[in-house]
Write a structure and sequence with these properties.
heterodimer, A: alpha+beta, Rieske Iron-sulfur Protein, Naphthalene 1,2-dioxygenase Alpha Subunit, Chain A, domain 1, 2 domains, 4-stranded antiparallel β-sheet, B: alpha+beta, 4 helices, 3 strands
Chain lengths: ~375, ~90
């Protein structure tokens, strides 16, 4: 294809040849505590997750899902004692990745080891370490423990899973810097916006208000009576904690949103999000649960607004930016560190970078557009 | 191993344009830190640190929150902007 002179060409680039190094979330730990093997699709493979019978509640086994004997599907096997047993020939695999027993054999071959993943339970979720180079899990890179979460001070997690086909998970990461999409996709005015990247963390600080021309039917963050203060940090490539202070007509609620994902293929991933709400003083449990559920629905519909964009957009390696845009290139440079060998991490991928977006100009324009929408709606209302 | 591989030379040029070409060096007036600064507008500031600059800054050497910046560096940047040393607006180059 020949481009017209001066016409800009979208560089779709090539998808990465590997999956990111770092901590990934399998889901709520309770999901895996039923004494059965579970399947997790990720990294173009299937993993088996189970809880060894005699183990403490936070110990789990995560192995490649296929038996190294004849390839039986361990996720369809059984938990027998501490091990997961293959449905094909009953080979018993331990959480350390070693075959512990072959009931019909005199001894277990010394080489009977399979791919295992180290696990940690954090904030009620099961995390596991993935590294194409096979390094030991780096516990310094874990997301922090959330004080009070898991106690009576917070609601239980509302946890949702959405399969995304047709996008690389970097589309999700790009949101960290995308100030303007909050207006167009989520119908909120960002009133202040800041990014900081450093080491393996990338953070977004944002304050926003709902758009009055969208409130009735738009969903997402659009409620005009709502002021959001949001701090969201990626701890590595796939796990974000978002602390939200939601001020609804002066009633302030503290919400914690987990936004995490598992890459499943070169252009697909499983998005997971969880919501827990700090129980406001003086409210009964039923009301608190209701509030938490409402917020879960609200942020859930926000994600679905993104999903629709992702599933229809083209991948672009060379986005064209304007002066009001966030630091897309710097964020992607930060994200790249998880896709190269540790020895190849360039200094600028992990160097500290700070960015404060001027929302003044954009907001002047947006407020005018909203006012125009409201004027037109009123005129139509009068005419009708 | 490269990961997200651009398929054109222009993309690499864009990466340089957006990440480094617009940076102006600003020295902190209180320590030996030198950072890269970009201002797309009066109200916008980007600060590109290096490992050396972080080591040189006593403020950043303390235990701190990720988002906490250095107020003395910020003052130095504002001073440099007032002195006209940092261009404001990326022009059509952005």
């Amino acid at each position: 294809m020949t481009a017209a002179a001066g016409a800009r060409v979208l560089d779709r680039g090539l998808a990465p040849e590997r999956y990111a190094r770092g901590w990934h979330c399998a889901g709520l730990a309770d999901t895996f505590r039923d004494g059965r093997p579970h399947a997790i699709e990720t990294f173009g493979a299937k993993l088996v997750v189970w809880q060894p019978a005699g183990a403490d509640p936070d110990t789990f086994g995560v192995l490649d899902g296929y038996c190294r004997h004849m390839g039986g599907d361990l996720t369809q096997g059984q938990v027998k004692g501490d091990e997961v047993a293959c449905p094909f020939h009953d080979w018993r695999w331990g959480a350390d990745g070693r075959c512990k027993q072959i009931p019909y054999a005199r001894r277990v071959p010394l080489r009977a080891r399979t791919q295992r993943y180290e696990t940690v339970v954090r904030n009620g979720q099961l995390l596991f370490w993935h590294d194409p180079e096979g390094s030991a899990a780096d516990h310094d890179l874990l997301p922090p423990e959330l004080p009070g979460v898991g106690t009576d001070a917070y609601t239980e997690w509302f946890w949702e899973t959405v399969e995304i086909e047709g996008s690389h998970c970097r589309e999700l990461i790009d949101n960290v810097v995308d100030m303007a999409h909050f207006y167009y996709v989520h119908f909120a005015f960002p009133t202040s916006f800041r990014n900081v990247f450093e080491g393996t963390r990338a953070t977004q600080f944002m304050e926003s208000k709902g758009r009055p021309d969208k409130a009735a039917d738009a969903g997402g963050y659009s409620d005009v009576d709502m002021v959001l203060r949001s701090e969201a940090t990626y701890y590595g490539p796939a796990y974000m904690i978002n602390w939200l202070e939601v001020d609804y007509k002066g009633f302030v609620t503290e919400v914690i949103l987990i936004n995490c994902h598992l890459p499943t293929g070169p252009d697909s991933f499983t998005l997971q999000y969880g919501i827990t709400v700090k129980k406001p003083e003086g409210l009964d449990d039923k009301t608190t649960q209701y509030i938490a559920k409402r917020y879960a629905e609200m942020f859930g519909s926000g994600f679905l607004q993104d999903v629709h964009i992702w599933q229809n957009k083209a991948p672009v390696q060379n986005p064209l930016l304007c002066e009001e845009d966030g630091p897309v290139y710097q964020l992607r440079r930060w994200y790249e560190q998880f896709y190269v060998d540790v020895a190849d991490i360039a200094p600028d991928m992990v160097a500290r970078f700070e960015f404060e977006v001027d929302t003044t100009k954009a907001n002047e324009f947006w407020h005018e557009e909203v006012a125009e929408n409201l004027r037109r709606r009123e005129a139509e209302g009068v005419a009708g | 191993m490269a990961s997200f591989v651009p398929t054109s030379e222009e993309t690499l040029a864009d990466q340089r344009l957006y990440t480094s070409d617009w940076l102006t060096s600003v020295s902190c007036q209180d320590c030996l830190a030198v950072v890269g600064v970009q201002k797309n507008s009066v109200h916008h500031t980007s600060i590109q640190w290096s490992a050396e600059a972080l080591d040189a800054c006593p403020e950043m050497g303390r235990p701190r929150e990720l988002h906490a910046g250095c107020p003395r560096l910020r003052a130095s940047i504002e001073q440099a902007v007032r002195a006209g040393d940092v261009p404001i607006g990326a022009g059509d180059g952005i």
